[in-house]
């Protein structure tokens, strides 16, 4: 379980959401810097919440295990499942689980639990504090002596006061101050929810696989070639999927350009029906998809055997 906590903390430094398959997901809400008063600004901050409904396996945690331990996908999933079972067992037996900076879980009556956030801070926001700006020129009250002064001196003092006021007004107008508070992303924080049970979600799939595999289709994917008259015949279609699908994922990327280059590379290697799944903050490039897990596993072994450069390929299950 401690190994799983370390992986989650590391992933939350760069990703806004990390899901523990079969348990729930941690979500980071970033609060931008905001003005308090005229020239005082609060530092940006982040808050960590837990959403029990995020239970499907998006492959992010498994990929972290694979990279750090040089593991295959199946071995990484076994470690994750072991950590989840240990977490649930401790929550049932001890009624409380402390996950360090991620917070803690406390079990209530009726197989329910509450989440208490921890002191989680992203490295980019570490050390930032409240800041105040001071004007470069401060107006001072000009005291006039009781005795009568010469007209030239009175005009000189009046000119200094007007110049100082103009400088202060100019500074206030030029300061780049944002008066609005940007709303931060809301995440459903579950305080009392069921300990067990998953929520099914719909998925969309696209044409994928090697030349000898069965062809399927999907919508909401990145294009793999320019939109020409011939390519329009292979336009993606949206179809409902009754059961789960198993995707052989070859890589996960953040930029569409990088994902497109990976698709072209796979095409040059003989994968003629590649595709991609575009999700929030990431793009999964896959070589094939199946409705049967056994066929997906056989295809994955074939990829590992014939293409050693793709030894980190893994299977993503989507319901």
Verbal overview:
By secondary structure, this protein is an alpha+beta fold. The chain folds into two domains: 2-128 and 183-194, no CATH class; 231-318, Sporulation related repeat (Alpha-Beta Plaits, 2-Layer Sandwich), CATH 3.30.70.1070. Helices cover 29% and strands 21% of the residues. It has six helices and 14 strands. The chain has helices spanning 2-12, 60-69, 73-94, 151-174, 256-268, 293-306; strands spanning 17-20, 24-31, 34-35, 40-42, 45-51, 96-98, 104-107, 112-116, 131-132, 193-194, 245-253, 275-279, 282-290, 314-318. It has a four-stranded antiparallel β-sheet, covered by helices on one side. A hairpin with a 3-residue loop joins β1 and β2. α1 packs across α2 (60-69) and α2 packs across α3. The protein is flat and about 95 Å long. The chain starts with a helix and ends with a strand. Residues 177-241 have low confidence and may be disordered.
